[in-house]
């Protein structure tokens, strides 16, 4: 796929698949942190060393494509414009760190964008597999297969006692972060989320916003991932996370049922007001748009809104971000211009049918 292809499609092809519990779990991700033996880690490496790692890694992996995920395209950070990197971050294909701070960074992507191999991020390699809905087991299986394939071509920095060696001590061991992106509007509306999140942290898991560490939980979207990588196997990590996710799904379903039984008119009013504002606004800020899209998505999931595709709203969550708005405009936009274009784009998309 060309750079233009990665830039212009808001929804990655993998997002169009239907996964288990996809009304609540939007996506599942497995990410592996790896470093190469006999090379300085990125936090200590010189520009020349980072360049050598990038060239060596790309050449090695392009030499023998992995059939299970298809051919890979390589994008080099120094060849991308600032806004192009921003779009890749908004699509969750690269991290903000790779976009902003990486020396000779690159990313290798497969055609449906379910596999992303970041080069010279915090570690030499960040292997990321993404799937729609609750598919942690599938994600782990594919990620381990990709990891084995990469290790056939490259030698990892590995210690028999400590496991995979990483730049950050919190990633030492398996080097794995398993995470899910969850839409929890009913728990937020009933204020149960304020009690649940601290309890999740006590279980060795961490809750972040839509773009990971340091980001805000906009649109009632919460990213839940493991915090412990040392002393547990990859399967143990996935099993622990899956157990918590299963409980959260049930709590969210129960909260939705309570809202429908006890406050249906009030809930419908909130959802329809949000739909009306999104359908007719001429200017709208990002935070309000995301909040109201969350309401509309809940309305679709509860059967209170018909004729609008849930995929359209997944698309709008990305399309209305700064990077995409500027990508389509072909120019840097002021805040006022972005708010105007965001409103126009939402009005247009909400007219599309299933």
Automatic annotation (TrEMBL):
Domain annotation Phosphagen kinase C-terminal: ranges: 24-255
Q: What chemistry does it catalyse, as a reaction equation?
A: L-arginyl-[protein] + ATP = N(omega)-phospho-L-arginyl-[protein] + ADP + H(+)
Residues that coordinate or bind ATP = 27-31, 92, 126, 177-181, 208-213
Citing just one GO molecular function, the answer is:
protein arginine kinase activity
Task: Reply yes or no: does the keyword Transport apply.
Answer: no
The entry assigns this protein to a family as follows: Belongs to the ATP:guanido phosphotransferase family.
Identify the domain of life. Answer: Bacteria
| Modes of activity regulation | Appears to be allosterically activated by the binding of pArg-containing polypeptides to the pArg-binding pocket localized in the C-terminal domain of McsB.
What InterPro entries has UniProt attached to this entry? Arg_Kinase, ATP-guanido_PTrfase, ATP-guanido_PTrfase_AS, ATP-guanido_PTrfase_cat, Gln_synth/guanido_kin_cat_dom
Give the residue ranges of motif RDXXRA motif of the pArg binding pocket involved in allosteric regulation.
Answer: 338-343
Purpose = Catalyzes the specific phosphorylation of arginine residues in a large number of proteins. Is part of the bacterial stress response system. Protein arginine phosphorylation has a physiologically important role and is involved in the regulation of many critical cellular processes, such as protein homeostasis, motility, competence, and stringent and stress responses, by regulating gene expression and protein activity.
Going by the UniProt record, its keywords in alphabetical order are: Allosteric enzyme, ATP-binding, Kinase, Nucleotide-binding, Transferase
EC no. given is 2.7.14.1
Pfam families cross-referenced by the UniProt entry: ATP-gua_Ptrans
Question: What NCBIfam families does its record include?
Answer: PRK01059.1-4 (NF002194), PRK01059.1-5 (NF002195)
One Gene Ontology cellular component term attached to this UniProt record is:
extracellular space
Q: What is this protein called?
A: Protein-arginine kinase
Q: Which GO terms describe its biological process?
A: phosphocreatine biosynthetic process
| Naturally occurring in which organism (per UniProt) | Alkalicoccobacillus porphyridii
């Amino acid at each position: 796929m060309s750079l233009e292809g990665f830039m212009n499609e808001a929804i990655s092809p993998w997002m169009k698949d239907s996964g288990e519990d996809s009304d609540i779990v939007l996506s599942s991700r497995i990410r592996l942190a790896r470093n190469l033996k006999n090379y300085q880690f990125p936090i200590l490496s010189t520009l020349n060393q980072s360049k050598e790692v990038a060239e060596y890694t790309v050449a090695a992996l392009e030499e023998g494509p992995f059939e299970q995920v298809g051919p890979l395209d390589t994008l080099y950070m120094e060849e991308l414009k600032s806004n192009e990197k921003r779009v890749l971050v908004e699509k969750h294909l690269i991290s903000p760190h790779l976009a902003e701070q990486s020396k000779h960074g690159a990313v290798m992507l497969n055609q449906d964008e379910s596999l992303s191999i970041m080069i010279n991020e915090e570690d030499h390699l960040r292997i990321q597999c993404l799937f729609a809905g609750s598919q942690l087991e599938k994600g782990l299986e594919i990620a381990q297969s990709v990891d084995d394939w990469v290790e056939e071509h490259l030698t990892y920095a590995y210690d028999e006692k400590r496991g995979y060696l990483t730049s950050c001590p919190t990633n030492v061991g398996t080097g794995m972060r398993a995470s899910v992106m969850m839409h929890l509007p009913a728990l937020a509306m009933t204020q149960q989320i304020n009690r649940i999140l601290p309890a999740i942290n006590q279980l060795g898991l961490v809750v972040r916003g839509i773009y990971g560490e340091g980001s805000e939980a906009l649109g009632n979207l919460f990213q839940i991932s493991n915090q412990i990588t040392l002393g547990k196997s990859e399967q143990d990590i996935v099993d622990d996370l899956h157990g918590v996710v299963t409980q959260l799904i049930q709590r969210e379903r129960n909260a939705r049922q309570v809202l429908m039984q006890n406050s249906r008119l009030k809930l419908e009013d909130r959802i329809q007001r949000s739909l009306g504002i999104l359908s007719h606004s001429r200017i709208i800020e990002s935070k309000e748009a995301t909040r109201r899209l969350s309401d509309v998505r809940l309305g679709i999931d509860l059967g209170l809104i018909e004729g609008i595709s849930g995929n359209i709203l997944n698309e709008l969550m990305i399309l209305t971000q700064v990077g995409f708005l500027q990508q389509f405009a072909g120019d840097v936009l002021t805040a006022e211009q972005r708010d105007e274009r965001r409103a126009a784009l939402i009005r247009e998309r909400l007219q599309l049918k299933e």
